[in-house]
Design a protein that fits this description.
The protein is α/β, with parallel strands linked by helices. It is 46% helix and 14% strand. The longest helix is centred in the first third of the chain and has 30 residues.
Length: 405
C-alpha cells in the first residue's frame, strides 16, 4: 500500500512540474521573455546615443535595450493597438500633442519625476500632463522665434505697435514690401494672440485644459485677430497666406521680420540674409508674446510586461543631467532639463530660448484637433474683410463646440 502511495505522489509531482513548465512557456509566448527592452523613436538623431545609454543599463540589469526607428504615425497607432494585444515597444518618444488619445485609450502609464521635477522646465512638464497627471518624461522643447533683419532693424521692437511703426517707415522709403509675411495665420502668429490675452481653452480647477471651455471668441483672441487683420488692410501683411512665400520675403530682404522656427535656419543661412532671433514683441512693453511650445518626451506602454524595467531605464538613465546632456548633444533641440536649457547653444539657440522661456504648451487634448480648421477659416474671413474678427471667431467657436460633442 505504501508503495502505491509513493508512486501516486511521484506522479503528482511530475504532473505539477509539467504543468508549471507549460504555464511558463505559455506566459513567455503571451508576453515574451524579459530579455530586452524596446525603444521606438521617430527620428534618427537620438538612436546612437540611446543605444549607448542602453548598454550601461544592460551592464547593470542584464537586460539589453533595442532602439528602432519607427514612423510617428505607426508608433502612435501601435501603442493604441497594444491594449488589444498587438506588438508594441516598451518605450516610445513622441511629441506631447500626440499624448491625448494615448491617455484617453489607456495606452500609456502614469509616471512620477519625484524630486527630479524641479530640474525640468515647468512648461515641459505641463506638456506631458493630462488632467493633472504626468504621462511622459520630457526630453526636449521646441518653439518658434522672432527673426529680424538687423540691417533693416538695428534694435528689435518691444511692442507690436513699434513693429508697425518701424515697418511703415521702411515701406514708405521703399526698402520693404511687408512687415512680415505670415507663414500661416495660426501657429506661427500665436504670439500675437497670446500677447493680447488670447487663449484657446479654459482650465479646470487642477490647471488642466477644459476642452468644453472654448475661448476662441473671447476678447483677447479677438483683439489678436483684429490686430493682424488691421495690418492686412494697411498692406503690411499679405492677405494670401503662404508658408514658402513668407520665408522668401524675409530671406530676400523684403520683410524685416519673420515668425518661424529652427527649421528655417538652413535656408536663411544659405540665402546669406543677415538675421538674428529674439523674443516676440508684446501688446505692451515688458510682456512679450509667447509662442506655442512643443515638447518631446518618453512614454511607457501600459501593455508592456516590462513596465518596471522600463521605468528604471527612463528614471535612472534618461532623467538625469548626464543622460539629458548626452541626448541634447546628439539631437540639438533645446533640452527640457533646466540647467542645460539655460546654458547651451549658440546665438540662434539662445534666441529661441529667450522666445520660449514662458512658451505655451501646445494643447494635447483631443478637442484641439477641431480647432485648426476653424481657426484658419476664421482668419481667412477676417483678413479678407468678409467678417469682422469677432464674427469669424464666434463661428469658429461654435464649430469647435459642435464637433466636440
Amino acid at each position: 500500500m505504501k508503495g502505491i502511495v509513493k508512486i501516486f505522489c511521484a506522479c503528482i509531482i511530475v504532473i505539477s512540474i509539467i504543468f508549471t513548465v507549460a504555464c511558463t512557456k505559455k506566459e513567455e509566448v503571451a508576453t515574451g521573455p524579459a530579455e530586452k527592452l524596446t525603444v521606438w523613436v521617430y527620428d534618427e538623431g537620438r538612436i546612437a546615443t540611446l543605444t549607448d545609454i542602453g548598454k550601461k543599463f544592460e551592464a547593470q540589469y542584464g537586460i539589453a535595450v533595442e532602439v528602432s526607428l519607427v514612423d510617428l504615425g505607426q508608433l502612435r497607432n501601435q501603442f493604441l493597438l497594444a491594449t488589444g494585444g498587438a506588438d508594441c515597444a516598451d518605450i516610445g518618444i513622441i511629441p506631447h500633442d500626440n499624448l491625448g488619445s494615448l491617455v484617453v485609450n489607456g495606452a500609456v502609464i502614469e509616471v512620477s519625476l519625484g524630486s527630479k521635477a524641479s530640474s525640468y522646465l515647468e512648461p515641459a512638464i505641463t506638456g506631458f500632463n493630462y488632467n493633472g497627471r504626468l504621462y511622459g518624461v520630457p526630453l526636449s522643447v521646441e518653439n518658434i522665434g522672432f527673426f529680424y533683419n538687423p540691417d533693416l532693424i538695428p534694435t528689435p521692437p518691444e511692442t507690436w505697435d513699434e513693429a508697425v511703426a518701424m515697418s511703415t517707415a521702411l515701406k514708405r522709403d521703399g526698402k520693404i514690401d511687408f512687415m512680415f509675411a505670415c507663414p500661416d495665420a495660426t501657429y506661427n502668429v500665436y504670439p500675437v494672440y497670446d500677447s493680447f490675452g488670447g487663449e484657446i481653452f479654459g482650465k479646470n480647477a487642477d490647471g488642466s485644459l477644459n476642452g468644453r471651455d472654448v475661448k476662441l471668441a473671447d476678447a483677447g483672441f479677438v483683439a489678436g485677430m483684429e490686430f493682424l487683420a488691421a495690418q492686412v488692410k494697411a498692406g503690411l501683411i499679405p492677405e494670401n497666406i503662404d508658408w514658402d512665400a513668407a520665408h522668401v520675403l524675409f530671406e530676400s530682404g523684403r520683410a524685416p521680420f519673420c515668425p518661424t522656427g529652427p527649421w528655417a535656419l538652413d535656408r536663411f543661412r544659405t540665402s546669406g540674409i543677415n538675421y538674428k532671433v529674439t523674443k516676440f514683441p508684446g501688446a505692451v512693453k515688458g510682456k512679450p508674446g509667447n509662442p506655442f511650445l512643443g515638447v518631446q518626451g518618453m512614454i511607457i506602454s501600459s501593455a508592456s510586461p516590462r513596465r518596471l524595467l522600463a521605468q528604471s531605464f527612463v528614471m535612472e538613465y534618461i532623467a538625469t543631467e548626464s543622460g539629458m546632456r548626452d541626448l541634447y548633444n546628439a539631437d540639438g533641440r533645446p533640452s527640457a532639463w533646466k540647467s542645460i536649457f539655460e546654458t547651451s547653444g549658440g546665438p540662434d539657440d539662445l534666441g529661441f530660448n529667450a522666445a520660449g522661456v514662458a512658451a505655451v504648451p501646445m494643447p494635447s487634448i483631443p478637442e484641439m484637433g477641431y480647432v485648426w480648421d476653424a481657426w484658419v477659416a476664421a482668419a481667412a474671413l477676417s483678413f479678407s474683410g468678409e467678417r469682422t474678427a469677432a464674427e469669424a471667431l464666434r463661428n469658429a467657436k461654435a464649430q469647435v463646440e459642435s464637433q466636440s460633442q
